[in-house]
Amino acid sequence: xxxxxxxxxxxxxKLFENLxxxxxxxxxxxxxxxxxxxxxxxxxxxxYGETFAEIYKKKSAAGKxxxxxxxxxxxxxxxxxxxxxxxxxxxxxxxxxxxxxxEPVQVVIDV
Length: 111
Description:
Blueprint: H1 13-21, H2 26-33, H3 37-48, H4 52-59, H5 61-75, H6 79-90
Helix pairs in contact: 5-6
């Protein structure tokens, strides 16, 4: 008996994994892959045996590591990036010093 209905959408695993690696959203991926979110989710279940969210979390980790590597290289030459990374990963922060022992300010109202 012949199957009826529309044939399953073919999606390139390599393209899908590359899109995860550059942190594309599900909506962006669907636009690029020319499919609906439901189709993408069904394809993930068939191909990987897991939901889109589970696969995305795993496959996007490589992209995050690559971004972190690039940021660290940039911090060697760019003080702003070094400061940003220090705040993000080392808990560093800008300290604003208040001097409470300063001379009092006298306000004169001349009417």
